[in-house]
């Protein structure tokens, strides 16, 4: 393992934006409590959600304290970021069910056992107690409507006559910003990581914390993952691969990765596995000389399927895949 977390994240392609150019030094000098946010809009994450969760796992491996924030409150509203229409609002029982399922999946990815439970917080727990007048007076006064109107995801909805944005969705980012302040005050949280399309919300949270506590907190984003043709990950039927085996079977999950084009596979093996970078570089070099063996895809598919569905299921689907597509009688073990 490298001694420098930022170098590890950079080499793997995780880094897109940071709120402080000295974040690498800061992370070396102090232990951070870092959180990733997700809204429980479904009872299973899809492969597009995995990158910030994998990033959170790297922070854990470097001894930083991870938190998963599940947006039980914000999930009732819906993030307007780059959405062309209003989201369907969810009820409390659905959100509670989704939260439980998502937590199980993230625990598995972060290798956290029942003896060491991932710290999970739900923003419904604090928003349900907030008085609207107090929130208007103490929180919303810190935000400029002019700035919010200039936000790309809001501006695009306003300028398009066929679309509209409700005041509910318009204020969504203020709720997410308050999450950062709440976690700073109650969990000593000082870093948020997320997708690049959450940058405005993260910066708004950093600014709100500074105005209320006079302390510095930080933000890091990872790039939105696209295929080689720039299609957004997880947004088409063929790419809507879920982590729940009742929605996407382990076999289909494995086949998706093993059929990934070379250009995508090179990026994905760095982002979606914990294979050391030295070994990844060796795999890439070997694959360039022997492309017909599709070693990158096989390593990527094996490691990811094992992480999500376990070794036993993975060995079964590899064997079935090899027999069907490669005519092999005995399974070749791609696990190290």
Measured between the Cα atoms of the first and last residue, the distance is 16 Å
Estimate the strand proportion: 5-15%
Task: List the total number of helices.
Answer: 16
What is the fold-level CATH name, i.e. the topology of the largest domain? Answer: Rossmann fold
The radius of gyration computed from the alpha-carbon positions, rounded to a whole number of angstroms, is 21 Å
In the sheet with the most strands, the strands line up as: 1-6-5-2-3-4
Tally of extended strands?
6
- At CATH level 2, the architecture of the largest domain is 3-Layer(aba) Sandwich
Give the integer mean of the pLDDT values.
84
Shape: globular
Tell me the number of structural domains: 2
Task: Let me know the CATH homologous superfamily of the largest domain.
Answer: HUPs
- Helix content range of the residues, please? 40-55%
Query: CATH class of the largest domain, please?
Result: Alpha Beta
In short:
50% of the residues lie in helices and 8% in strands.
